[in-house]
Amino acid sequence: MPAIEDSYGTGDIVDTICRLNPDLLAESCQHILSYLRGQTRGVDSAEVFDIFQKAGVTLECESLQSIIRFLLLTFRSAGKSKLSADDLMSRLEEGSNKWSKASLQVLHNLWSEHGESVQVQQAVQDMLSVGQLVDMQWKLGLAVSSDTCRSLNSPFVTILLKIAEPSGQISQKTFEMTVPQFQNFHKQMKEVVAAMDTV
């Protein structure tokens, strides 16, 4: 669960959440849970902002985004930890004494209804998560000798891949190929690009 009362003011976020009308909180959470269940591509904060304005709630855009991030992190963490609705409520109450009964009841009801599908979607995302290629560098080298051979005189290509992992960290992978292997790799990459252009 997000740490309450930290330097980012999440204690204030909880206070703001608790001042919301329960129906407005439920509607906002529905947008977040739809995203976490894989039904939408993201949480449209502009749409949620419009809902707040139509309900007569004046809130700065930055405050609303903080609420969305907090609830998104809360539900995502609960999904990954496979928490029941009661366990989620216990963690939230442990984190802050500012939670109102009405707000906790809304979150409890929504998590009871949608928590299982969020957990399934989180598990699927974990299994299917693939890193994204950020950078690729290569250089041509010539092996002139080794411990086992006096003279190799064979060219090779060293490739360095930088990959953004789903966790957000960037990792580096390095490997070597012979020139014919690199030429085959180049040919296959051209085929991939051509296939992607047709999509």
Q: What does this protein look like?
A:
- The structure is a single chain.
- The chain is of the alpha+beta class and 199 residues long.
- Helix content is 57%, strand content 16%.
- A hairpin with a 5-residue loop joins β2 and β3.
- α2 crosses α4.
- It is elongated, with a radius of gyration of 25 Å.
List the helices and strands and how they pair.
Layout: H1 10-18, H2 22-36, H3 45-54, H4 61-80, H5 85-95, H6 101-128, E1 132-143, E2 154-164, E3 170-178, H7 179-198
Antiparallel strand pairs: 1-2, 2-3
Q: Can I get a quick summary?
A:
The protein is an alpha+beta fold. The chain contains seven helices and three strands. It starts with 9 loop residues before the first helix and ends with a helix.
Top keywords for this entry?
elongated, 199 residues, alpha+beta, three-stranded antiparallel sheet
Tell me the Rg in angstroms: 25 Å
Separation of the first and last Cα atoms = 40 Å
Mean pLDDT: 85
Uncertain runs with pLDDT below 50, 5 residues or more? 2-8
Task: Report the β-strand fraction as a percent range.
Answer: 15-25%
Structure summary, number of beta strands: 3
Strand pairing plus helix content: what structural class? alpha+beta
Helix content: 55-70%
Tally of contiguous helical segments: 7
Strand order in space, largest sheet:
1-2-3
Q: What is the helix/strand order?
A: HHHHHHEEEH
Q: What characteristic shape results from the CA principal axes? A: elongated
Main sheet specs? 3 strands, antiparallel
